[in-house]
Specification:
single chain; about 240 residues; mainly alpha; 10 helices
């Protein structure tokens, strides 16, 4: 693509993806809505998927020692169900409806966390809850690459160590993105034009990826979680605004 308007939305989107994969989980949720200002949302998600998968490989290597096995075991089966449901419903569910669902989940979670002073470690995560949040995350990730709010709704209250939280997120979304490839192919969302555009944007994505690693490693844990909640609030409001307007 050569339209400057496309790159005006794609460049900030790719930077957001890189910072998100570097550790500021959730920031990447703004990427597809930004690109969707120019392209249909599902096509925008498919265009960004090769970039995401390259970033996943880098991030998985970087955080390969920091992840929580139990959370992945309860989240990933649900994510698979959500992705299958998203593939089946892609042509029937409004993209704006999905934005409203994802934004509403994130906003409700932030409100609950702040109103209940959820700044201490909680121990109420369950396997059923993880499965449900995983399925919602898989569905919203499939449609608009917006799986962050549902994932964070399950993981943030656990108050895991900073790097464990980031590593768990990295491995979870690496698996989720890989699972999305077959249904995207079946829905004819990949094209050579979009793939070549992804290659053009990839170097910027990698640079932003390493910038995220650097920022996370130098951010105190308490500040990191405050930033995570603040980002989730902003992203959720943005998704709601896009969906409603």
């Amino acid at each position: 693509m050569t339209d400057p308007l496309f790159y005006a939305v794609a460049i900030p989107a790719v930077i957001g993806l890189g910072l998100s994969k570097g550790g500021f989980t959730g920031l990447g949720a703004v990427a597809t809505p930004l690109v969707a200002l120019y392209l249909p949302p599902l096509e925008a998600a498919a265009l960004l998927l090769p970039i995401l998968m390259c970033q996943d490989l880098i991030a998985v290597y970087f955080y390969r020692r920091d992840w929580d096995a139990w959370n992945l075991k309860v989240l990933l089966p649900g994510a698979l169900i959500g992705i299958v449901f998203g593939g089946l419903m892609a042509s029937h569910v409004s993209d704006d409806a999905v934005r409203i669902i994802a934004g509403g989940i994130g906003l409700a979670f932030v409100a609950h966390a702040w109103l209940s002073r959820a700044n201490v470690k909680l121990h109420n995560a369950t396997a059923l809850g993880g499965f449900i949040w995983g399925s919602i995350s898989g569905f919203t990730s499939f449609v608009i690459q917006g799986g962050g709010p549902a994932f964070q709704a399950h993981t943030l209250p656990q108050r895991m160590p900073k790097l464990t939280f980031v590593g768990t997120s990295t491995l979870f979304f690496c698996a989720v993105n890989a699972m999305k490839v077959p249904p995207y192919f079946m829905l004819n969302q990949f094209s050579w034009a979009n793939f070549s555009t992804s290659l053009v944007l990839l170097p910027l994505a990698v640079v932003a990826n390493f910038a995220g690693f650097w920022l996370v490693s130098r951010t105190p844990t308490i500040l990191f979680y405050r930033i995570a909640y603040a980002l989730l609030l902003v992203i959720s409001l943005g998704l709601l605004w896009q969906g409603l307007t």
